[in-house]
User: Which sequence fits this backbone?
DNA sequence: CTCGATCTTGACGATTTCCTAACGGGTCAG
DNA sequence: CTGACCCGTTAGGAAATCGTCAAGATCGAG
């Protein structure tokens, strides 16, 4: 119970980091700090924080991309800090996967309350393996890299988006609209022709035999499914009850 | 697809309710409105919304108490609206169990984005949708997959729709019109010949002896019923999954 | 500005799925 | 027995979906 909760604090302003850090530590949280986007993604993968507090105004990578990068493989709560009041920015951050958006200047008490609210929700640990290995290629969700044999396969952002969503839902059927919404954004849902183009692209790059897909399967009329051949029968030791 | 998500909208200002309601409906949400705290708690219990948008400035019960009332039995996402900028208020609401706090006036886009964020989180818990196992086949509703022995059975969207509705109502009789409406859409109800065709198709794929159905039973003149032979006398737990 | 990479869009056969209509076999009442 | 009714079965053509290709459109880098 007394398990300390880990917070990843991403901000390039030393003042904020110090102030927040002191407060959080005093409250019994364990703090990890990162000063830019790459660092944040790396440390998140290393330390598996229970929550991330992320300043959008970072040098280097765009803050939104950091959110997407995290969301690729983890559902850790993300609270975004920003000086920008612009609504567009808020919506973009939230739709990218942020859980909350706080504009600076903010009250420390409020931020802490929002942090508590976020942590309260995340009771389930959900130990995932962010790296997936198949006989034909390897996908590292945290680092966003695909290797085939020993050489790296380069995917465009959209291609990666598709791979990511399908792999995260491994074995599960993902409907076209769900896939579109998750990769292109919530306002999409009908443009199934995009999918056809990009699925084909992905297969061309990853499938050993693109015209006969073994991993990225089409379920006609329903959606797509990622699956490692030979594993489906082994599913569900979880709570599945056999009645042989 | 695309089950409509239900939103409970609690506010005593008709203007806000109308504006929000129109927007939300246009986006495909199903709206329930309540004007005061008691009403809100009652309607939440009745309709089991997927999210609650709650104005703190209500007549009658204090908004904070509404939050507590809800949190007593549900973890539905609660987004609080308030004119009060006071930090004390925010902290109180968040610590009482609210998921988010938006101060009026707010941008519609932002609120909608926050709503999406809240709904997205709630979607995760993948509520233990049990796998249904029979001696002849296995149906995994979450993953949308049917296996017979060790090989996969491919179902078309309509076939799957029928199986899903019947299995969800396991043991219960589903009338023809109900089945038609649930699978084809609300404007259907008379086209019982569709059913004959697709039920036959399903039986051909799943029943060990299609001409003598053991699972997908016809209730002449009334409708259809899914049932696992040997189980009807005893009361099964929720979805036919048994604790050995 | 040009170039290259990426994403959009439209169009085309090939395939799959759906609708439709017709037939036949049960059951039941008259 | 006969006809009405309901259900199962079958099959062919209509309609939707999918994979594929290739030509714009867009954007950032140089």
Assistant:
């Amino acid at each position: 119970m007394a398990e300390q909760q880990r917070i990843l604090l991403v901000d390039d302003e030393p003042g904020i980091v110090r102030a927040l850090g002191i407060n959080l530590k005093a409250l019994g949280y364990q703090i990890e700090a990162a000063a830019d986007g790459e660092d944040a993604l790396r440390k998140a993968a290393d330390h598996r924080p229970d929550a991330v507090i992320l300043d959008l105004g970072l040098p280097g990578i765009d803050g939104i991309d950091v959110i997407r990068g995290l969301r690729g493989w983890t559902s850790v709560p993300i609270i975004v800090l920003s000086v920008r009041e612009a609504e567009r920015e808020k919506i973009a951050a939230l739709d990218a996967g942020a859980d909350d958006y706080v504009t600076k200047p903010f009250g420390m008490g409020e931020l802490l309350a929002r942090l508590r609210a976020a942590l309260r929700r995340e009771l389930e640990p959900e130990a995932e393996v962010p790296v997936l290995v198949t006989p034909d290629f390897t996908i590292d969700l945290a680092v966003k890299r695909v290797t085939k044999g020993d050489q790296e396969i380069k995917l465009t952002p959209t291609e990666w988006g598709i791979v990511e969503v399908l792999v995260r839902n491994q074995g599960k059927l993902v409907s076209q609209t769900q896939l579109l919404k998750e990769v292109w954004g919530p306002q999409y849902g009908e443009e199934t022709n995009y999918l056809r183009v990009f699925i084909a692209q992905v297969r061309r790059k990853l499938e050993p035999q693109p015209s006969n897909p073994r991993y990225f399967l089409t379920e006609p009329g329903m959606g797509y499914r990622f699956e490692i051949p030979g594993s489906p029968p082994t599913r569900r030791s979880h709570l599945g009850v056999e009645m042989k």
Q: What stands out?
A: Residues 6 and 30 of chain B are 5 Å apart (CA to CA). Helices of chain B lie at 14-26, 37-47, 63-71, 87-96, 108-123, 157-168, 176-184, 192-206. Residues 192-193, 195-197, 199-200, 203, 211, 218, 220-221 of chain B lie near DNA strand D (CB under 10 Å from a C1').
